[in-house]
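Entry for the shared binder. Reason: the reviewer on the internal report wants the predicted structure included alongside the sequence.
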Amino acid sequence: MNIRYRVNLTEAERAQLTAMLSGGRHAARKLKRAQILLAADAGVGDEEIARSISVGGSTVYRTKRRFVEGNLDLALSEEARPGAARKLSGKETALLVATACSAPPRGRKRWTLELLADVMVRLTGHEGLSRETVRRRLNEDDLKPWRRDMWCIPRVDGEYVARMEDVLDLYAEKANPKRPVVCFDESPTQLIGEVRQPIRAAPGQPERYDCEYRRNGTANLFVFFDANRGWRHVKVTQQRTAKDFAECMRDLVDTHYPKAELIRVVLDNLSTHTAGALYERFPASEAHRILQRIEFHNTPKHASWLNMVEIEIGVLRGQCLDRRIGKCETLISEIRAWQNQRNAARARINWKFTTEKARDKLVRAYPDTFKESKPL
C-alpha cells in the first residue's frame, strides 16, 4: 500500500517556486516538479495534478516523497539512475587520451574512433570496445583527434599596432563627404556551369540539380565599400593585375567620388596594391593626378579582418554567389542586382572594435611603459 505524502510549503519555499516558474532558464523537468509541489501544497489531488501537468502518477508520487523525506532541493533535482559500470578505468582512459594525442599509425592521415578502439583492445584486456565508448571518453576531455585547426600567427609589434590604430581611427571619425573612407579588396570566383538543366522546386519536392558541372574559368571581383554611408560597388574583371588595380583607383576618383577632396582607401598589403601600379598603367601626370586625391591606409600583415570590406564580401558570397553561375555576363548581372538592392537599403556594417578595445584586448602588444629605462 502506497503511503500518502502531504506537502506543506513554507512561505519562502512557495515564493522560491513561484519565482522559478515566473522567469529564468530552468530544465523542463524541474519546472514540472515545481508545479507539482505548488499544486500539492494547494490541496489538489494526485490524479488531477498528473492530468493538468501532463505527467505520470508515479512522477507526482516520487516528487512528493522526495520533498517530505528530504527537502525542496532534493525534490527538484534528478534522482540517481542506476547504470552499467564504466568499461574503461581511469588509467585506461588516460592511455586512450595519450594514444589519441600521438601520431596516427603509418599509412593513416589521422586517428579514427575505430582505430582507437582497436588499439585499446590490443593494449588492454578488453575483448571488445565500441566506437561510442571511445567517443564518450574523448569527449570528456574535449578531444577530437580527427580535427585539425590551421593558424596564422601575425607578428604583433609596433608596426602592427600603428597600422591597426590608424585604420580604427578612420572608422571612428564622423562621416565627411569630402573625405570619405572607402574599404577596398578583391576576391576571385569560379564560373561554374550546369551540365544538365536543374529541376525547379515543387510542393513536396526540393530543387534538384546534377552532381556534374562544367568549369568555365574564373573571374575577379574588385569590391569597394564606403564605411560611413552604406554604399558598395563590385567591378568584375578577367584578371587582377596591377593595371586593373590602377584602373579601379581611377574609377574611384573620377566616377564614384568626383567631388571628394581626399579619398582614404583602406586596403591590404597585396603586391599590386601600390602607388607604383598607377605609374605602370598611366602616364606620370595622370598617375600623379589620381594619387593627389587618394590616401592609402594599409591594414597590418595577416590582419585583413580589420578591413570592413571583408565582411561585405562574405555577405556577397552568402546572398548572391553561393550557387552555380556559368557565364561572366550572368555573374555581372546578378552582382549588379544584389548591389543595387543593398545600396537601396543602405545596408551598413555595425563596426564595434575601437582603438580603446584594441588596447584592452591586445595589451601585450603595446609598449610596457613600466619597463622603459629611467633617466640617470
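Summary line for the report: The chain has a mean pLDDT of 90.
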